[in-house]
Design goal:
single chain, 299 residues, alpha/beta, Aminopeptidase, 8 helices, 11 strands, globular, disordered N terminus, disordered C terminus
Length: 299
């Protein structure tokens, strides 16, 4: 497949830009980061292995052909258990912090109640991440060093794409634990392989969702829409179909390409990488055919 171009130099994320962007598509992986700050690990009450279960491990590599195909690829370097870039900036649990908290803050969401705010309170296992409360100034530190750089870069990529093509599709790439379907993995006919999320039709034009569903289903993968994942902050923020900006979340069952217990790639990794490469080719072709006309609502 060739090799990736070197990423742009940034502490918070890797930005892989094509030599020439050829289609109105941007690919992003907000949860594949695996660089754990030493200070964070010292604060943690759970081992690194527990923190790593929240990662969308290797998802950025599944889509690594994107820049070779003429599409920008962005991947967070910071881990999801440290900062979740798929949350609102002040979507926080006030009980985690000591000292004055920033305003406005959004602490009444179901995600915060579950311990999964912008700074998560619990690991994927449900165990508390921190031994005690942390200083409230840690909020702005993590926003400035992780969350904001990621979204500034992503917003720029989307807007530059829109400016070039008169439309933009953001493919927000994720993985899901095999247990998410609630169905035994040995029953291949029932296992959910892919979940596509468009915020229940609010974030993406139906023909784009149909294109992705048709391609993946045609490769023998079992695809569901918006259940149990309809999309998070990213699809809500960047998905504005009436303004020519579309966002589609894709969740890939981890058991298709990795050993979840050992956190290692399976021999089938190459199969899934080729599938995602083919998907990007199909999405790029379809987007070029359908998004070239700037919608009237954007004028």
């Amino acid at each position: 497949m060739g090799s990736l171009p070197p990423p742009a130099d940034h502490e918070a994320l890797d930005i892989y830009l094509p030599e020439c962007q050829t289609a109105p598509v941007v690919v992003a992986s907000p949860h594949s980061g695996s660089l754990y700050p030493a200070k964070f690990l010292a604060q943690a009450a759970v081992p690194l292995a527990a923190l790593r279960r929240a990662e969308d491990a290797y998802v950025d590599e599944l889509f690594r052909a994107a820049p070779i195909q003429g599409l920008p690829l962005l991947a967070a370097r910071f881990p999801r258990s440290y900062v979740d870039a798929n949350r609102e900036p002040y979507e926080l649990d006030p009980g985690m912090f000591e000292g004055p908290l920033p305003r406005p803050r959004n602490h009444r969401t179901t995600r915060v109640a579950a311990g999964l705010g912008m700074i998560p309170r619990v690991a994927a296992s449900g165990e508390a991440i921190y031994r005690g409360r942390m200083p409230s100034d840690e909020i702005e530190h993590r926003l400035e060093t992780c969350w904001r750089p990621y979204h500034v870069a992503l917003s720029m990529a989307v807007e530059q794409t829109y400016g070039m093509f008169g439309g933009a599709l953001l493919v927000d790439a994720h993985s899901m634990p095999s247990s998410a379907s609630g169905i035994g993995l040995r029953d291949r006919e029932q296992r959910v392989d892919i979940v596509l999320g468009d915020n229940h039709g609010e974030a993406c034009a139906p023909h784009l969702m149909d294109c992705v569903d048709r391609f993946l289903s045609g490769r023998g993968l079992r695809v569901l829409r918006n259940q149990p994942y309809a999309g998070g902050f990213t699809t809500q923020r960047y998905g504005r179909p009436a303004l020519g900006r579309h966002a589609l979340q894709i969740e890939i069952n981890r058991s298709l390409y990795m050993d979840e217990a050992r956190h290692e790639k399976l021999a089938t990794f190459g199969v899934m990488e080729r599938t995602m490469t083919g998907l990007m080719e199909e999405v790029a072709r379809h987007a070029l055919e359908t998004l070239l006309q700037r919608p009237l609502a954007a004028e």
